[in-house]
Write a structure and sequence with these properties.
Layout lengths: L5 E7 L20 H14 L2 E7 L39 E5 L15 H7 L2 E9 L1 H14 L3 E10 L7 H12 L2 E2 L1
Parallel strand pairs: 1-2, 1-4, 2-3, 4-5, 5-6
Length: 184
């Protein structure tokens, strides 16, 4: 039987295409990897849960500008761009959640996945979130975690923003705080 009151670390989309040199690079996106690795070790050593979410798009989704969306082609499944960054810690105990499998944007790690059920099966009640990008996948994951009733901690040292419009990342942090997340 799983322990009660467990925590989960959700690492959002630290994939090659979102890191410097990638198709949709988040400025300084790779700089968060050491902090995420430190947290991953702490969580796993305590017996808590670690989840890595990833965009896992088909090549012809309407999420991409080539098919009517707003984003360049990125994180196409089974390509090197969709791989997790090579410096991000890997461990067989880490749960991988794939999203963006169809035509929707699916920014959240909870969107069209069984993550809520998985976390409940592990008796998780508190979620810590970091990754890429603050103003999209991190923000939507935080909102969905709050809606599902989890306590949420946002790891500002372990995330970076796209900032399509200057200040998007700061506005996202403000919105997450206002929604009830603890900003750390």
């Amino acid at each position: 039987m799983a322990d009660s009151n467990r925590k989960a670390l959700i690492i959002a989309d630290v994939q090659n295409d979102f890191c410097p040199g990638g198709a949709l690079a988040v400025p300084h996106g790779d700089e968060i990897i050491p902090k995420l690795n430190e947290l991953t070790k702490e969580f796993l050593d305590r017996g808590d849960v670690v989840v890595k979410s990833r965009d896992w798009h088909p090549p012809d989704t309407n999420h991409f500008v080539t098919h009517g969306g707003i984003w360049p082609v990125h994180c196409v499944r089974n390509t090197s761009g969709a791989d997790f960054h090579s410096e991000l810690l890997d461990d067989p105990r880490i749960i991988v959640v794939s999203k963006g499998l169809g035509n929707g944007d699916n920014y959240s790690a909870f969107d069209r996945t069984d993550l809520t059920m998985t976390l409940r099966d592990y008796n998780v009640d508190e979620i810590w979130v970091g990754g890429l990008a603050t103003d999209y996948c991190v923000k939507d994951t935080v909102f969905d975690a709050l809606k599902a009733g989890f306590k949420v901690v946002v790891l500002t040292e372990a995330m970076r923003a796209v900032d399509l419009r200057p200040g998007d990342g700061d506005r996202a942090i403000g919105a997450m705080r206002k929604a009830g997340a603890q900003i750390y």
